[in-house]
Each structure stands twice: as structure tokens, then as C-alpha cells.
Amino acid sequence: MANFPRIASGFGLAVATGFLTIVPSEGTEGFAYFENKVRPILVQRCYECHSEEAGKQKGGLWLDRKAGWAIGGDAGASIVPGDVDGSLFIHSIRYADEDLQMPPKSKLSDEEVKILEDWIAMGAPDPRDEALAGAVQDEIDFEAARQGWAYRPIEKAEVPSVPNSEWADTETDRFILANLEEAGVKPTSDAEPAVLLRRLYFDLIGLPPTPEEVDAFVADPSRESLAAIVDDLLSRPGFGEKWGRHWLDVARYADSNGGDRNFTFYQAWRYRNWVIDAFNKDVSYYDFVRMQLAGDLMHAASPEERREQLVASTFLALGPKMLTERDKEKLWLDTADEQLDTTGRAFLGLTLGCARCHDHKFDPVSQEDYYAMAGIFRSTEVVTGTRNGCVNVASWIERPLPMEGPEAEKTKATVERLELAMRLTVEKSFMKKAGGKMSLDNLPLAGVIYDEADAELIGPWRKSSLSGNRFGDGYIVDENDAPGKGTNCAIFRGSLPESGEYEIRLAYSAEANRAKNVPIKVEARDGDHRVYLDETKKPSIGGLFEPVGRFTFEKGGKCQVIVETTGTEGSFVIVDAVQFIPVNDIEREAKALSGMGGDKDALHLMSEGDLKKELNRLIGELKDAEVAMAPRDAKNSDDINLRVRGEVGQLGDKIPRNFLQVLHTGDAPQIAEGDSGRMELAEWMVSEENALLDRVMVNRIWHHLFGRGIVATVDNFGRLGTGPTHPELLDYLAAEFRANNGSVKTMVRELVLSHAYRLSCNPTDELVKVDPTNQLFGKQNRRRLTAEEIRDSVLALSGELDREKGKATATPFGIDLDKPFSFSKYQKRTVYLPVARNNAATELAVFDAANPDVVSGRRNQTTVPTQALYLLNSDFVHEQAEKLGVLAMENAKLPGEEVKWLYRSLLGRAPSDAEMQRSLGLIAALSGASEYPEDIKEACGELAHVLMASTEFLYLD
Amino acid sequence: MSPFNTACNHFDAPTWSRRKLLQAAGCGFGAMALSGMAQAAGQGYHHAPRAKRVIFLFMHGGPSHVDSFDYKPELNKRDGGKLPFAPAKNLDPSATRQAKLMGSAWEFKQRGQSGLWISDLFPHTAQHADDLCLMRSMQSKGQSHGQAVCMLHTGTDNFVRPSVGSWVSYGLGTENSDLPGFVSISPSASHGGPRNYGSAFLPAAHQATTIGGNGKLDENATFKFLKAKSSDDVQAKKLAFLQKMNREHYERTKYAPVEGMIQSMEMAYRMQASAPPVIDTKDEPEHIKEMYGIGTKETDTYGRQCLMARRFAEAGVRYIQVSTPNVWDQHGGLVKGHTKNALAVDKPISGLLTDLKQRGLLEDTLVVWGGEFGRTPIIQGGDGRDHNPQGFSMWMAGGGVKGGFSYGETDDFGYYAVKDKVHMHDMHATILHLLGIDHLKLTYQYAGRDFRLTDVYGEVVDGIFA
């Protein structure tokens, strides 16, 4: 299939214009042909989608004017006058290419096609000389874009001086106050100490303070005591568990693939725990980013560091994949797309995925930018082989972690065997289906192979499939005792893609009753050659192919291999397949084979069924092993072609790997041969040149502490995002962040100790009037507790929360996470429990946990009846409420204390008198005014249930 | 003490019954609950609708069109012959090398007044030929189930996008504020699972509420958490307390989501009462159940699914998916497998069509039947067919489409769609159009751009409109 490369716009214009001037003006005859024959077809069959009249220019192509087809659409010039076969237009109307058939609904009649072919052959005379309105796309003005607030270098703004400066505790406060004063409003009052403490605890560690902790702070709500509490919270493991979860939302973390096959990612938890640890250890954000993009490529000073780097790079492998995609190039490109889009949103707040099919419509990201970066990810391997033995189901890569002692070697060997088994499974199935001539260039067996079915047979031969060790469906055997034995032969006529030296190999199954002297005639460029083959000896390559010599062939020249039977009376001759392998490829093939344990491994001789069993066994063996789900640079690392309209099969120009032009003005990186360019990408990503990195991250931190980012659309800093409410503050914080070497804890501490953080959620009347949507942060924003906070705090209150770190919690669920599951039997913090794509545990799904398919820097807060039904009727809420009822009674010496305990524990405050009366009333009504503790306990549980379902519990002030 | 402050506050907690609550819903807080419920409000019609709701009968695994709705005498004639066409380009070429044609084992006959050719695989459905609008030139994307199933339900083979039902719910809202706008009966957990009935970036209220799963539907299946754990009396007392507390919280905060939650609680409480009577098919007369094949082993499950679908349709649900298990994937054992699968669904589907018609519901209910792709005219193994997204059949009935009509053609062998091709995107555009929605106008802004169900594709197939 011919590729029609996308002509680089400048060049295309020149060529097209050339034609417009060179082709002589057509005589009336040509125009008459156009009017009579051609125009009616175009009007009837093409204008619907390619004319100004219809308002459609699909594929960027106009067909209602000459200039339209001359310049062409996204895929380049459409019609080349005089060149029928070279015109994309003809190519598409011939319906020769499944991906490009026009008109799309029904093919033109043969007669119509002929008319259009003839028209082009005569030079495509076309009188329609309207100008090319709107056909030339606007180019992105990168120079101008670089001056935009998001892309320009960070300049630390001067801290504004404010009259009411005693209000300001920190520099941040001065920025906030300056804007408020400019708008002529004052910030609202401070939150009550108990309210503030509950906010601080949930924001920093995702759990509520105990009633005692509240009492202590209420007794001394000074800034010093607040600072001490902040430092304490920052040092608790809960900080990493809470803030690690924020990052896991961004990293679209999951313990299963989702996509089409929901395989369990047995090793994903290592990444999850690494993220949690990184926040607890306050790892520099720049190291944090670098390791996720290229940890597997980094130099390590110690095995421990190597381990962390490999685990961190799991980031790239975590995405959902369509593992059953049969078009493997599409699978690779889709995977690269997923990595690129995630990288863009997570680190840069840019929707790079939008540029896959065309230049970004809103942001300064061109389609070339996309493919320049996609080349880096296309050169990064995360999918490989086959997961479950079905050749159509790909797997991912697992890499051994550094270990001491014999265990290390064993794991390494198991991983290698798994990859070999996965690869062989693909090959076996491939060969079984492969009847004959085909290129196996992505398999160890390279070159061109002809199966016995491709041979011309002379004399008596019989088909067989008795031996399982064969190529293709079967093989042929000569009729040993039939008349004619010794005169029959099988002729293979080769047709080779290139001239050169080839090794000829024959496939057969060895047995003692085979002939030892099978005569083979090879007709090559320099004449005929005669060699003999001993079919009693086991073939040396993969147990299936045996080389018989090297010969030189001319492309299109003489090329035959004839298997004869002369002199083989009394034994059988087997003919299975003939392979022509270019000598240059033999080394490559040998390397591929030896890289997978050579052809000595017993796996090579296994049947497909046994391989599948072995595959499953190895996967089972590795699920708890010391391995990481990590990427590696692909063997075929290289620049890739732009894809016209994002279609995998529509190749455009090759685009050198590079970073985003809007942020990077220097040269494209020098990427060493065989490298993906990820290391270069990672270094650029964290460099000061990339101002977006700091802006996006400090904005994420702000978002989590103030309920809304300075840029509200935390994952989109592009034009369709909201833009910053406080651009100077954003840059000030970004500069601070850089100055503190990307310390998240320092930034969090800075922000929670600001006066702005301490504000009440209730606005003054004045604020409501001037700033109803709180753009100025004159008050704090309320938020709902997250799904994790709801579950964790309830478990903490009932005393059931297991605060130990979780590990491979998804493993017990088996090979996939498709079966419905809930967390009811688990006591770990929610962050440690499995995140199943497509199948979120109820506890997560009901309260808007992040969708692990995409980057989610900001969670939804929906209000749907299912939440109410869950709060009313779920087992978890009922069981926990019951337990709280019991605890309330245990903590009560006098009537009323149980109510107080429940209010203080769940809501962080004591009940009012009216609430106390109402609560006692409910308990009395539900226990039938019983005096028995058992009945009261139960009624207390009902009260606990009500409080847990209350909006005051659910929403954080 | 009253649980809710309503205009018709005429009941007290101890005597509070569900029926009274339902009555109250009609005159009192129903109106209040509606305000602010994302679920109830849609974007509105773009033009007069021909159908008000959709029942999508999903045949998971990909039923063979050349053995059912796409008659190919030439294929039968050339049974065992070599391929007269080039296999699809995105296939591993080895898969189709040495491939041979396989004729159909089922006899095709002309049916009804219209004389549509339909095979004996679906004898009951065939009796409705004059109501069927066959789409014989379907095309889709994705050679594997995962991609093709997502393509069918969400309009994309590799991204996470809202499903058709979610778009419909988002576009039109629900006809019944006590029920979800989109229900999925027995959806599969595999091949994308919930993404096939999920709302993706649309508000969560538009995702399907599910009942049953993986083609199975227990006798007692119901919506999750629908069943109250406390007695009516206890729950009423608790709810009264809770809502008072929540309202006080709202008074203090004036925070809109708090009000939303208050309304959500009411809606949840109403659903506890209003959904079970729709779900529970006990009161259906025997002859109706028999019509759906309920009570007969082979047809019982799909029969109950179809009957439930009718009840949801009747109650005002906009979009109802009815899924078979993933059983149609006959790479081998085609005759046996397809016979068994068709037996399980044929009578229930026929019953559903009859039932909708006799109730006058077929006029404004669009029934759509199909799998994620068809199957190849090429033999696999001794008696199997591979996936065929290049050309296959689906059918529609009711809701403004021509009956006894066939649209589009595949080639003489049923491999490629060749005439009046209907891509899955076109199918989606057409479904939306029938519901009064312009697929170009129903958009949602997310992550930097406006999204629509049909991406940048889709053309309404107006040739099938009645």
C-alpha cells in the first residue's frame, strides 16, 4: 500500500502552486468535459462534505474549487494533474484503502471512477477559480504564546504593601488582602477554633481530631500552638497517606487495567506506597517528577535507590490499555498517547492529547509538538507479549527489583522466562495461522517463509499433521512405497524483497525413519546448487528449521528451492517449510533468541496449550515477587511519523523528538541511538525553563487547602481553563517552591499558617454582595469529605482503623478485578485498598472518588440519590453506627453523655440544648423508653447513624 | 413531628406510610425536590422527537449477520471456496491466509408482507418482520470485543467517554423524577464494564443505575441499597430527625450542596417506595409472562430482562440497556452456540415487541437490536466465524422508523458494507435524532474542548424514518 506522506505545508504549497502555473490553460474541450462529466459527479457525490455551499470541509479539503484540490486537505494535495495513480483523490475513490474510502457511504460506480481518472489524466482541466477561502489554517503564533501568563518565565512578584497589614500573617495574606482591598471588602471573620482544627486535621491527615485534641486547642488557640499542631501533623504518616492520595488521583493510579481486560496490576501497590513515602519524606518535587518519568533510566547510587527509581517509573505503565487491540501499532500509539496526555495534564496542566489529530484548537500545541513528544513515548515500551495465552491479549512489562542473594537470580530468571513464554505463545499461534509466505520481521524467525502449501508438487505426496512440531497447519510426506517414489519433488518459487545473500533453511520434523540424504536443489543468481539434508537429525533452530547453505539471489531473478526424493527409497522425506533469511538478519535473529534464553529453553518446544499453562504459572509465581511494573526503552526507539488526522495508518512526515515549542526554544535534544529520549524529557520537565511545572504544582497544593485553585481548573492551564484569579500570587508561590527545592511540606506549612486559611466558611453580607463566588478568597471554601475520609474517620471513631501500611491488597482478588467487591472486611486506611478500574468499590464510587482512567486533580462533588440510599441503607454505615452506639454507651456515665460523646466524636462539637433534648427524645422513642442498656445501645446506634448521615458530618467547614 | 416541611404536611411520623409519602410527593416536596436535581432537568429537544425512549437489546459477543438478517445466496454457493475479497487491513494477514468461505447453516425465508429475508435462527422475531427496520450495512471500529463493545455503547474504541444512555439522560432528563433516566439491565463487567453505561465526564447523575449483571438477573434483583434496613417506623423517625438537623445546618450555612443533599434524601426515600413496584414483575398476568418465555428454562432470564425493560419504559426511563451474557462469540461451534443463544432471546424479544405494540408503546419506543460486530463469512476452525466489524446487521423497531424495511447492503459475501454504509457513529447520530436531539448540538465541555457522542463523525440516516 502506498503511503501518501503529508506534505509539509510550505513545500506542499510550492508544489501545488507550481502545478497551477505550469499546467497550460485548458482548452474549451477540457472544460466541456469537466462541465458535462466531472462537475455533476463532484456536485452529487462530493460537495456534501467538501464545499462552501454545504459549509463542510471534511479532512480540510475543498472540492468546489480548483485551488481546493490542488492544495489539498490534511493529507496533502488531493489531485495531481496528469498523475492518476499519484492522486490521493483517485486512491480514495477506488476504495483500495480501507482507511480512506470516498465517498464514505457508497462507492462510485466504475464508470464514474473512470470519468474522474480520465479527467485527471488529461490534466484535470477545471474552470472553477474561486479563491481558497479559509482553506489555509492559521498557524500558531508561538512567540506571542510564550508571553502568556502560563508559559512565560516565573518572575517573583513584589509583595504588595497593604494598609491593614496587621491582618496579614504571611506574604500570601498580603496578596489576598491586596485584592480584597482593591475590591473594597474585608475578609470574613476567623473560623471557630474547633472548626479550624477539624479542617486542619482532615486537610493534612484525612482524619478528624479526637475530642481531647479539640479541647486542648480550644483552650489555647494561639498561632504558636497552631504551628506546633501543624508540625506534628506534617510528621505523622497520615500526611503522606492523605497527600499521596491527592497525587494518586493525578497519576490515575489503579490496581487493575480497566480498558477491555481488567487484569490485576499485582505490582502497582509498590508505586502507591512509594508515592505515600515520598510525601512523608518530603522528597523534592523535582526528583519526584524526574523519577516518575525516567526512574528506570537513572543512575542509582545504591540498590535501595535503584529500587525506588524503578518503582517510581511505574507511573508511565499504570494507564488503562486496550490490551486486546489486534492492530499492535495502534496499541503502541494509543499507549504512547495515554502516557503523553497524562504527562501533559499531570505536570503541565495541558491537554496535549487534543493535538493528536490536528493542531490544538485553543492552546499553543501543534500537531508536530504532539508527535515530537509521542516519539519519546512510542520509544518507551510498556506493553509486550501476551498476558493470558491468547495472542490478541497483550501484557505489560515487569522488571526485577534489585535484591541480594540467590533470590535475585531466581526472580530475574523467572521474569525472563515469562517474557519468553509470552513471546513464544504469540509466535506459536502466529505460525499456526501462518500458512506460508510472509514477513516475520518482528519475530525471531526473520526473512520470508514459504509453507508446503505454497510449493508446486510433482508426483505423489501426502498431507500430514501428525507431528506437532511443525510450521503452519501441516506438512507433506512422500508416499514411501507408492510408485514414483524417488521421482517426486516439491518446488518452492521464491520472490524476495531485496537482492542479496540469504541463508536457506528447511523445516521438517526429525525421526529415525526419515531420509538421511534428501537432495535439495537451489537455483540462485550464480546458477544451480545441490545440497543434501539429513532429516533424522533434529533441526538446530528452534527445533524446527535447519540451515542448508547461503546463496545470493537477485530481486526478481531466479530463485527456487526444489526438494527431491531421488535416492531416498526406504525412508520418508518430509517437507514442511522453506525459509529465506537475509544473512544480515541472522545475527539479529540470534541475538533475539539468545536474549530470551536462546533456543535451548524447553519453552521453545512446548505446545501452545502447555505454554499457556506455563504462562499462568509464571504470572502466579511473580505476583508476589520483587518486581516492578516498569517501562523500558524500546529496541526500536526512534522518531515517529505524524499521523494525519490521528489515523494510525495515515503516515505524515517523520517528526524529530522534542519538547513543547511554547516552553522550549532551544535545540531539539540530542538523543543517543537506541534511547527513547525520556531522560532528556525528564530533565527538561524539571528545568527552570519549564515554568508550568511549578505553577501547576503549587496550584494543586492551594486547591487542596482552599477548596479551589488559584487556577480553578487545576488540570487545565490552557485557554479553556479558568485562568488565575491571583496570577502574581501564583508566581510568587511558584518562585518560593523553586527556592525551597520543591518541598511540598514547606509549601503546605506556609499556606495553612496563613490568615486566609483560618477564615470562616461563612461570608459577610458585604462579601456575598461583592464576591458571591469567592474569587477573592475572602472566606474559606466548604468541601465535602472525600470517600476515603468518610470511611477512614468512621473506622477511626469506632476504633477499628488499622493504621499499619497496606501492601499488595489487590493480590487476593485474583487475576482480574472484575468481580464486585466492597471494603467491608478491611480495616486499613482506604488509600491502601484496591482501586479497580471499571469496578470501583462502592465506598469509593458513591462519593466521587477519582476516576482512575484519567488525571483527576479535582474531584467531582455530585449530589445523587445513590449517596442518600447508601447513607440510609448500606451495611457499612449500619454496622459502624451500631458499634458507635455501643462505644457511646461505654463512654457515658450519666444519661446524656452518650449523646454528647457522639456529637463530639462525629461532628467535633457538643450538642446544643435543643439538640440534646431532641436526641434523648429519639433514643427514648426508639428504645420504647426502655431502661435496659441493650435497648438503649441500639437506639444510640440509630442516633449515631443519623449523625453519620447528616450533612454536618459530610461537609467540612 | 414531620420528616419534611412540605406544602401538604398532613402526616405524622408514627403513621407515616410509603403510600402517603408517595401521595405527598405528588403535591408537596416533589416540586421542591425537582429543583436542583441534575437528573430531572435535561437540555431539551432540538426538534420534534419521533421516539421518547430507547430499549437497546445488546447481543454481547457479536451475533452472525450472515446467519440471521443478511441473506447471502452467493456465500452459500461458494461454500468452501477461496476468498474473493481482501481481508480487512488492520488484521494480522496470517489470520486470513488460506481462509475459506463458509455458507450459512440456516435457511432464509421471506417474511411478512414486506418479504424481508430472515433466517430460521430467529423464527419468533421473524414474525415481526413488518415492524423491523433492518440495517444491513453496519460498520464499526475495533476488531476485538473490548474496543467494539465500547464503540457500540460510547462511540469510541479507546477513550473513556459517556455512554449513549448517559448522553440521552443528559440531553433529555428523565420522564419520571422518582426513577433514574438510564437503567442497565444485567450489564457485563468485562469489555469495558461500567464504562459502557457510565457517564464519564458528564455529571454522575447520568450514569446508568444497574440491576443484575453479566446477563444474569436474580428473581429478587433490585437497585443497590434500595432496601431499607430499618422498619418503616424507625426509618421515618430517624429521617425526621435527620432532615431537621440538615435543615438547621442549611440555615446556618446557606450552602447549596446541603440543600441538594436534603432533597437527595427525599428522593432516596421516594425511590425506596416507587422503584420496587416497577422492578417487581409479580403482578404481571401469566399470559404476558408466557409471551416473554418466562417460566421456560431456556428463555426465562432474557424474558424477565425484557419484561423489566418494558416496565421501565412504561414508567418513564429514557434509555434501557438489556444485555445478554457474553455468549455470541462463536469462533467454533457456531451452529450449536448460535442456536442456543438465539433460542434464549428470540421469544423474549418477540414478546417484548408484541407487548409494546399492544400497549401502544411501540410508537414512541425505539427498540434497537445488535451486537458489537457481526461475524465473518470466513470459516474458523471447522464450524466458527471470526469478528466482523467491516459489515454487519442491526435492526430497529418502533419509535419513528420504517417497518418491513431494509437499509444498506454488504457485498455478496457479507464481509464489507458496500452500499449506504452506516457506521456506528451514524447509528448513534440516528438514535439521538429520533429522540429529538441533534448530535452536533448536544455537547459538553471537558478538558479543553467540546465533546459530543459522535466525536467529529456521524450522519443521521434519514432514509429509515417512517
Description:
- The complex is a heterodimer of chains A (957) and B (466).
- Chain A is built from 35 helices and 23 strands.
- Chain A is α+β, with helices and mostly antiparallel strands and 957 residues long.
- Among the domains of chain A are: 113 residues, no CATH class; 169 residues, no CATH class; 138 residues, Sandwich (Jelly Rolls); 84 residues.
- The radius of gyration of chain A is 35 Å and the shape is globular.
- The relative contact order of chain A is 0.11.
- In chain B, strands 1, 4, 5, 6, 7, 8, 11, 12 and 15 form a nine-stranded mixed β-sheet that branches. Chain B has a two-stranded antiparallel sheet with strand order 2-3.
- Chain B is an alpha/beta fold and 466 residues long.
- Chain B has a single domain, classed as Alkaline Phosphatase, subunit A (3-Layer(aba) Sandwich).
- At the A-B interface, helix 17, helix 30, helix 33, helix 34 and helix 35 of A face helix 5, helix 7 and helix 8 of B.
Q: What are the key terms here?
A:
heterodimer, A: 957 residues, alpha+beta, Jelly Rolls, 5-stranded antiparallel β-sheet, 35 helices, globular, disordered N terminus, B: 466 residues, alpha/beta, Alkaline Phosphatase, subunit A, two-stranded antiparallel ribbon, 17 strands
The CATH architecture assignment of chain B turns out to be: 3-Layer(aba) Sandwich
- In percent terms, what proportion of residues of chain B is strand? 15-25%
Topology-level CATH name of chain B: Alkaline Phosphatase, subunit A
- Helix fraction bin of chain A: 40-55%
Rg from alpha-carbon coordinates of chain A: 35 Å
Question: What would you call the structural class of chain A?
Answer: alpha+beta
Mean pLDDT score of chain A: 87
Radius of gyration of chain B: 24 Å
The span between the termini of chain A is 64 Å
Percent helix among the residues of chain B? 25-40%
- Per DSSP, the total helix count of chain A is 35
Residue share in β-strands of chain A: 5-15%
The CATH superfamily of chain B is identified as Alkaline Phosphatase, subunit A
**Computed structural class of chain B:** alpha/beta
User: What is the number of helical segments of chain B per DSSP (H or I, 4+ residues)?
Assistant: 12
- pLDDT averaged residue by residue of chain B: 87
Largest sheet of chain B: 9 strands, mixed
The biggest beta sheet of chain A reads: 5 strands, antiparallel
Listing every helix as H and every strand as E from the N terminus to the C terminus, the arrangement of chain B reads HHEHEEHEHHEEHHHHEHEEEEEEEEHEE
